[in-house]
Amino acid sequence: MRLYLAAPTRAAAELAAATAALLALGFAVTSATVADAIDADDLTEVVAGDLDAVAAADALVTVGDCSTLFEPAMAEAFGVPVVTLAEALAGAR
C-alpha cells in the first residue's frame, strides 16, 4: 500500500518517526519534496511531482495539524482517503 505523508513544516522529527514506523510495517511511503532556493520552473516541477504522488497514493496520512496544508485538500479532490497517523497505524495491525 502506498501512503503519502503530510506534515507541517516544523514537524520534521514527527514526520521522520511516522515514516520509520510505517516503513517498518511494510508500507511504501512518500512525502513532499524539500526544495530550498529554487526558481519558479523548478518549483512548478516539484509541486507537480508531489501532486502526482498524492494522486497515486492509496491514502494520505496526516502527521500533526495539517489543516492549512494543500495536500489533504488535493487528496480529497483526487478521491484519495485522508487518515490520521493513528488511524493508519491501527489499520495496519
TrEMBL record:
Residues 1-37 form the signal peptide. It comes from the Bacteria. Keywords: Signal. This is Uncharacterized protein. It comes from Micromonospora viridifaciens.
